[in-house]
């Protein structure tokens, strides 16, 4: 009797069907590519800012700049008169002063980006003088002139008039010179952010004569 042929298993049989292709991934849409570039740019900018900030902080901690030293080196009060007109009192003044700025640092320069001086008598602002801006190198000293002229209405009799009469009897008037500014420190090629500077100089000014004493100012804010 004839036996049916045994069935053969698929032992290592090759595939002879239609070819199978590996298609590449489609390119990302244009908007996605643009967003990736923006993300990379933002990350690079943030990394740069962080590195720059750390460098400035390290320089600040290493060099630790000192406050500038300010003084009134000379001052002359030409006029300080209290007059009355139609029941209103006026204080006329003419004051000139030389302010000395000293940079005590050996490794840092100072940019004075904005400077202003105010003259106050008994809590009243007599006037404001704009001061020149400048760069001050290490260990450098510079004198800056300030001039205050004008007439101030003080109104009805007040404590300021009493104070004026008391000081006028002695011939010496206490006038506070306030100095305000915005500054930056320079370490080599690196420059810090801006800082607010405020100083007060308690000057005692003899009227119409020489005799002013060199007065140191106190730097309050920095």
TrEMBL record:
InterPro entries in the cross-refs: NDR1-like (IPR044839)
Record's subcellular location: Membrane
Principal location: membrane
Any one GO biological process: defense response to other organism
Q: Name one GO cellular component term.
A: plasma membrane
Q: Tell me the domain of life.
A: Eukaryota
Q: Write out the entry's keywords from A to Z.
A: Membrane, Transmembrane, Transmembrane helix
Where are the bilayer-spanning segments? 37-63
Give the protein name, as stated in the record. Answer: Late embryogenesis abundant protein LEA-2 subgroup domain-containing protein
Q: Which organism is it from?
A: Dendrobium nobile
């Amino acid at each position: 009797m004839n036996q049916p042929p045994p069935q053969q298993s698929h032992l290592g049989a090759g595939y002879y069907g239609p070819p199978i292709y590996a298609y590449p991934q489609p390119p990302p849409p244009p908007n996605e590519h643009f967003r990736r570039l923006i993300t990379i740019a933002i990350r690079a900018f943030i990394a740069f800012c962080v590195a720059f900030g750390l460098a400035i902080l390290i320089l600040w901690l290493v060099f630790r700049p000192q406050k500038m030293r300010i003084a009134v080196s000379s001052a002359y009060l030409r006029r300080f008169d209290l007059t009355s007109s139609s029941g209103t009192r006026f204080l006329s003044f003419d004051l000139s002063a030389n302010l000395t700025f000293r940079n005590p640092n050996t490794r840092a320069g100072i940019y004075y980006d904005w400077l202003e001086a105010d003259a106050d008598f008994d809590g009243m602002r007599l006037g404001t003088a704009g001061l020149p801006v400048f760069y001050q190198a290490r260990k450098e000293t510079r004198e800056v002139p300030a001039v205050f002229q004008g007439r101030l209405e003080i109104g009805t009799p007040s404590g300021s008039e009493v104070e004026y009469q008391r000081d006028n009897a002695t011939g010496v008037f206490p006038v506070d010179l306030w100095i305000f500014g915005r500054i930056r420190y320079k370490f080599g090629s690196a420059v810090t952010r801006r800082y607010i500077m405020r100083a007060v100089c308690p000057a005692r000014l003899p009227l119409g004569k020489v005799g002013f004493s060199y007065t140191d100012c106190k730097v309050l804010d920095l």
